[in-house]
């Protein structure tokens, strides 16, 4: 009965038969039948199960990242075939699946905690902070759309939107910024939140630059409110201690806006406008630039608190005249039939006259804020690098500097966040980790500090000291006294630092699987990689895992050379092209073979590439090209989406040694498949999508990085032998790496995870 359709006719026949049998016989028959049904194999495996078919289904499920289904099929195949190889595959994936379930449980716990915190805070009228927990829960949710439909979240979103509008009216920009930042996370399809976030961010940046004391007052009030929130969430935990502010040191280290804008003049802006108009990757208009610049000045004039730096803004009538004049100029640009450089220069002249007749803002402030608004309408990577920043910018392109070895970025809330410490540097050795927040540099508040300002304070001559005040992810704050040194970072790392020096590149000695991490693409990367491959060849490595996670990019020609080492000559690697037919920049395509990698040095080993959301630029070119040519299986999460090309245009008379430059996006990178890497503001497709998606929570990433750092510590033989506690194996806490190793083991065992028709011809 368990194998045929259960129809109405069959049911009548069945009941008639049952009535003709003695009652005891019926019960015995039913028990035997039910037991047989329970012990029977599932419907897909009934009959003479074909191990080859089961294996084929298992491999198909594995390619799709359906590990549980793949494990079930392989268990069946192993039971039927008794093949030692199949049994080994089944054991490997069973072990991985058990580990994966632990990772899933961890993610679920993190989700429940974030959602619970959001509900608690919302119930205590702390909606501004509740929306932060809700955004964290949204990112952790298995079904994000279902989560957004939760009634409590819908109510919280409605309350948060109402509050954000009220905060804007009350000129509480820090609170409005926090809400719009989280709304853009939970509702990324709504462009309104990103636009409002930009405006709130601009106002906070203005306070940070021109009246930092006013911003500090706002931040202190915000910190007190955050302490109340922490007390609600963790009533049994003592508040984290914060070092007493050293106001004298903060004032001494403060960078004045006059120093940041020294030597800024209108001629630089006038020179930048035609360069942007002619060379930007997309067709733009002077009108767009002018309206953006005028609106930037309008935001400046309507941000309370700035009158402390610019007293004439406190004169209501003159400020109103200035704002009214800006509005009239905006309307004039919109209605003008002309869109040329003459019109643009006319607007700039009228802005200068309007300013002189009303609020009399410093000349360099007018130029800087107009430029920020104008080029802010294009993309986040286009801007003018002013004289005070140009020297620091040049340092970042040399590949060598003196500092503490730390990568930083600013987030939407104005925090100076650690992206990653560079390995084998003072910051790395001190235990500074990603996601930590730098609150002060030498006593100076780092909130809303731009990157170039921060770099200028952190770097310095070798042997000198810098003090970083840092808040970790648990909320604890401490000072780090770091001695600067010349940073020369090896870009190629292995699995384990050998006692006494050197790297062990073999991650699986039994299966002879190699492991290489590229931390960035520098002048020496290709040579370092060649040496690592030679070492692995001597060890008899049969397959390679290439880890590009947390790799921010680097030199394009080096990334091309890395790809060239793994694919046959003649194949496309990357293309660059603008998005306008009249661009002076032509479409270019670079193919394998152009980097002169000897054919005998080509690496033909099976390849798995690891990426995550912090893999950017050159690392996206490498992983994308290898994926498109089916040369590698890519594992992890979608990459960052930084696929734009910037060129520098000197501003001023000294072309060879300019005082300032325009950094302008002139084209985008395209993969061999034609996919654009770059993430536009409302893009739904960007970066490199992994073949096998393995997500990690922020907490899992921190745990994996901590384990990775312990493996990276360089010890001598005596220290290694006498280590007081064992190092945790990253494979135990890194689901992406564990998945990559599983896939490589399957490939080496003969599993056809890459279809034969896509095999490259060498």
Describe this structure in words.
The protein has 762 residues and is of the alpha+beta class. The protein has 5 domains: 1-40; 124-237, no CATH class; 260-384, no CATH class; 401-487, Pdz3 Domain (Roll), CATH 2.30.42.10; 492-640 and 687-758, 2-enoyl-CoA Hydratase, Chain A, domain 1. 49% of the residues lie in helices and 13% in strands. The strands form 5 sheets. Strands 10, 13, 14, 15, 18, 19 and 22 form a 7-stranded mixed sheet that branches. A hairpin with a 5-residue loop joins strand 3 (406-410) and strand 4 (416-421). The chain is globular. Residues 1-20 and 42-48 have low confidence and may be disordered.
Provide a quick synopsis of the model.
This protein is α+β, with helices and mostly antiparallel strands. The protein contains 27 helices and 22 strands.
């Amino acid at each position: 009965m368990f194998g045929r359709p259960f129809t109405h006719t069959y049911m009548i026949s069945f009941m008639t038969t049952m009535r003709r049998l003695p009652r005891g016989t019926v019960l015995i028959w039913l028990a035997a039948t039910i037991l047989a049904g329970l012990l029977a194999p599932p419907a897909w495996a009934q009959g003479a199960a074909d191990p080859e078919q089961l294996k084929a289904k298992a491999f198909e499920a594995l390619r799709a990242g359906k590990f549980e289904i793949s494990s079930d099929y392989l268990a069946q195949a192993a039971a039927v075939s008794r093949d030692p190889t199949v049994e080994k595959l089944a054991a490997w994936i069973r072990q991985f699946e058990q580990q994966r379930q632990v990772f899933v449980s961890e993610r679920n716990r993190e989700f429940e905690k974030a959602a619970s915190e959001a509900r608690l805070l919302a119930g205590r009228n702390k909606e501004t902070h509740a929306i932060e927990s809700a955004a964290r829960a949204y990112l952790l949710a298995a079904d994000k759309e279902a989560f957004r439909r939760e009634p409590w979240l819908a109510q919280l979103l409605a309350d948060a939107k109402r509050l954000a509008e009220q905060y804007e009216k009350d000129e509480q920009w820090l609170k409005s910024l926090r809400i719009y930042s989280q709304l853009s996370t939970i509702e990324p399809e709504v462009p309104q939140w990103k636009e409002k976030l930009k405006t709130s961010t601009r106002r906070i940046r203005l306070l940070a630059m021109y009246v930092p004391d006013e911003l500090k007052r706002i931040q202190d009030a915000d910190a007190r409110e955050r302490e109340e929130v922490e007390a609600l969430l963790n009533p049994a935990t003592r508040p984290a201690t914060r070092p007493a502010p050293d106001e004298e040191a903060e004032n001494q280290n403060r960078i004045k806006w006059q120093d940041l804008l020294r030597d800024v003049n209108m001629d630089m802006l006038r020179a930048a406008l035609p360069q942007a108009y002619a060379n930007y990757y997309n067709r733009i208009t002077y009108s767009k630039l002018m309206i953006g610049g005028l609106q930037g000045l309008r935001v400046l004039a309507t941000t309370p608190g700035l009158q402390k730096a610019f007293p004439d803004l406190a004169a209501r009538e003159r400020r109103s005249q200035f704002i009214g004049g800006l509005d009239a100029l905006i309307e004039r640009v919109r209605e003008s039939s002309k869109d040329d450089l003459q019109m643009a220069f006319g607007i700039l002249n009228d802005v200068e006259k309007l300013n002189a007749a009303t609020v009399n803002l410093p000349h360099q402030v007018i130029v800087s804020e107009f430029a920020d608004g104008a080029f802010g309408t294009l993309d986040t990577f286009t801007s003018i690098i002013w004289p005070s920043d140009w020297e620091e910018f040049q340092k970042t392109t040399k590949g060598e500097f003196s500092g503490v070895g730390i990568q930083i970025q600013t987030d939407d809330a104005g925090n100076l966040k650690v992206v990653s410490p560079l390995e084998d540097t003072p910051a790395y050795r001190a235990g500074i980790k990603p996601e930590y927040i730098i609150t002060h540099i030498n006593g100076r508040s780092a909130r809303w500090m731009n990157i170039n300002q921060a770099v200028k304070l952190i770097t310095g001559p070798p042997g000198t000291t810098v003090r970083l005040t840092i808040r970790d992810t648990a909320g604890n704050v401490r000072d780090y006294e770091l001695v600067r040194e010349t940073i020369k970072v090896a870009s190629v790392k292995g699995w384990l630092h050998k006692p006494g020096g050197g790297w062990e590149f073999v991650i699986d000695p039994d299966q002879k699987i190699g492991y290489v991490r590229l931390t960035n693409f520098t002048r020496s990367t290709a040579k370092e990689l060649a040496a690592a491959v030679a070492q692995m060849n001597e060890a008899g490595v049969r397959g390679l895992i290439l880890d590009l996670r947390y790799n921010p990019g680097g030199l394009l020609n080096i990334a091309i050379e890395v790809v060239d080492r793994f694919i046959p000559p003649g194949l496309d690697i990357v293309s660059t092209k603008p998005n306008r037919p009249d661009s002076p920049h032509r479409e270019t395509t670079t193919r394998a073979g152009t980097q002169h990698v000897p054919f005998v040095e080509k690496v033909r080993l099976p390849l798995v590439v690891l990426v995550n959301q912090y893999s950017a630029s050159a690392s996206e070119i490498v992983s994308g090209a290898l994926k498109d040519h089916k040369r590698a299986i890519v594992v992890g999460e979608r990459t960052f989406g930084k696929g734009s090309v910037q060129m520098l245009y000197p501003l001023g008379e000294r072309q060879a040694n300019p005082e300032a430059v325009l950094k302008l996006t002139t084209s985008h990178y395209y993969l061999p498949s034609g996919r654009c890497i770059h993430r536009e503001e409302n893009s739904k497709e960007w970066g490199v999508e992994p073949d096998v998606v393995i997500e990690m929570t922020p907490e899992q990433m921190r745990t994996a990085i901590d384990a990775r750092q312990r493996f990276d510590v360089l010890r001598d033989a005596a220290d290694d032998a006498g280590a007081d506690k064992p190092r945790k194996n990253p494979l135990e806490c890194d689901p992406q790496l564990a998945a990559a190793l599983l896939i490589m083991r399957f490939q080496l065992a003969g599993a056809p995870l890459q279809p034969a028709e896509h095999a490259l011809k060498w």
